């Protein structure tokens, strides 16, 4: 992701709303602590740093996933990055059960180019993106094909997690390459 945001790593930002204290630690996790004297007050993890949310080829937020279990799934949180005068956790909500939404204000995202994906990529991945742009312009691929290529580029860059099927496919490819000759297989 954007290198200038890594200066937030190792820091945590708190927000108190009614009886809950939320803590957001960029590139680490999000926690919630019930501020009551009940014997079983909730204190837990709402998500662990997972991947970027990318829309319109721009970083728009961070996904914190695999938090404490909640009914049949794990808690997860989307952190929206918005321009602000100081680094602070400004708003917290729970739009759907066990899925939280945080708004994090920071001056680090105020410049219009501060969250562009393209400059964060290696030269090789930028070339792949350029080729995809040309294919789209020449109408040799559809919008859907273009979005798939970009998703693959973002996964290869480590900005998005690959789907489980892709990971299995990668493992199978690795195994099949290890035994590409009978001699290698016999060994």
TrEMBL record:
Annotated compartments = Golgi apparatus; Secreted
The subunit field of the Swiss-Prot or TrEMBL record says: Homodimer; disulfide-linked. Hexamer of two alpha (GNPTAB), two beta (GNPTAB) and two gamma (GNPTG) subunits; disulfide-linked. The alpha and/or the beta subunits of the enzyme constitute the catalytic subunits.
Which GO terms fall under molecular function for this chain's record? transferase activity
Q: Which intervals hold domain DMAP1-binding?
A: 117-187
Q: Which Gene3D superfamilies match?
A: Mannose-6-phosphate receptor binding domain (2.70.130.10)
Any idea which UniProt keywords this protein has? Disulfide bond, Glycoprotein, Golgi apparatus, Secreted, Signal, Transferase
One of the record's GO cellular component terms: extracellular region
Q: What does this protein do?
A: Non-catalytic subunit of the N-acetylglucosamine-1-phosphotransferase complex, an enzyme that catalyzes the formation of mannose 6-phosphate (M6P) markers on high mannose type oligosaccharides in the Golgi apparatus. Binds and presents the high mannose glycans of the acceptor to the catalytic alpha and beta subunits (GNPTAB). Enhances the rate of N-acetylglucosamine-1-phosphate transfer to the oligosaccharides of acid hydrolase acceptors.
Q: What is the lineage of its organism?
A: Eukaryota, Metazoa, Chordata, Craniata, Vertebrata
Query: PANTHER family per the record?
Result: N-ACETYLGLUCOSAMINE-1-PHOSPHOTRANSFERASE SUBUNIT GAMMA (PTHR12630:SF6), N-LINKED OLIGOSACCHARIDE PROCESSING (PTHR12630)
What organism does the record attribute this protein to? Corythaixoides concolor
Write out the coiled-coil annotation as residue ranges.
none
| Gene name of the encoded protein | Gnptg
Q: What InterPro entries does UniProt report for this protein, alphabetically?
A: DMAP1-bd (IPR010506), Gtb1-like (IPR039794), Man6P_isomerase_rcpt-bd_dom_sf (IPR009011), MRH_dom (IPR044865), OS9-like_dom (IPR012913)
Protein name (record): N-acetylglucosamine-1-phosphotransferase subunit gamma
Q: Domain of life, per the record?
A: Eukaryota
Q: Where is the MRH domain?
A: 10-112
């Amino acid at each position: 992701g954007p290198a200038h945001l890594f200066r937030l790593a190792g820091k945590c930002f708190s927000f108190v709303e009614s009886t809950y204290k939320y803590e957001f630690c960029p590139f680490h996790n999000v926690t919630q602590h019930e501020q009551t004297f009940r014997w079983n007050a909730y204190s837990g993890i709402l998500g662990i740093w997972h991947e970027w949310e990318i829309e319109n080829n721009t970083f728009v937020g961070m996904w914190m996933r695999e938090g404490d279990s909640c009914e049949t799934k794990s808690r997860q949180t989307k952190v929206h990055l918005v321009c602000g005068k100081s680094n602070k956790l400004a708003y917290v909500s729970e739009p759907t059960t066990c899925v939280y939404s945080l708004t994090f204000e920071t001056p680090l995202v105020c410049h219009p180019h501060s969250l562009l994906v393209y400059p964060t990529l290696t030269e090789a991945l930028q070339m792949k993106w350029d080729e995809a742009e040309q294919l789209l312009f020449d109408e040799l691929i559809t919008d859907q094909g273009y979005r798939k290529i970009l998703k693959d580029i973002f996964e290869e860059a480590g900005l998005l997690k690959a789907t489980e099927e892709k990971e299995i496919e990668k493992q199978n490819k690795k195994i099949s390459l290890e035994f590409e000759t009978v001699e290698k297989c016999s060994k």
